[in-house]
Design a protein that fits this description.
Shape: rod-shaped
Radius of gyration: 33 Å
Strand content: under 5%
Mean pLDDT: 78
Structural class: mainly alpha
Number of helices: 2
Order of helices and strands: HH
Keywords: Membrane, Transmembrane, Transmembrane helix
Helix content: over 70%
């Protein structure tokens, strides 16, 4: 091989390496994007399920003094406090 052919072969090897690296980088970015989207969707679904479970759990505690809405009148708040929230439930203050 003469010097011209060696330079040309070296140039071809460099170009193939660069193109191969660029293709591999693009494929890696696409793969990470797909994986991240799936993981985010799964986390969102789990978060919504947890929020719905919390709502269902808190629905059973309606009527307690802590559930008085913001902006309620002082009388409504006192009434909720006096009623003790859940009826029939014994309160143990300070125990």
């Amino acid at each position: 091989m003469n010097s011209g052919e060696a330079d040309r072969t070296e140039c071809i090897i460099r170009m193939v390496t660069l193109i191969g690296g660029a293709v591999a980088a693009v494929l890696a970015i696409v793969a990470v994007t797909i994986y991240a989207r799936r993981a985010l969707k799964q986390a969102l679904v789990e978060s919504e399920l947890d929020a719905n479970a919390d709502k269902a759990e808190n629905a059973g505690h309606e009527g307690s003094a802590t559930d008085v809405e913001f902006g309620s009148s002082p009388e409504e708040f006192k009434e909720a406090l006096d009623s003790g929230g859940d009826e029939g439930e014994e309160r143990s203050w300070g125990q």
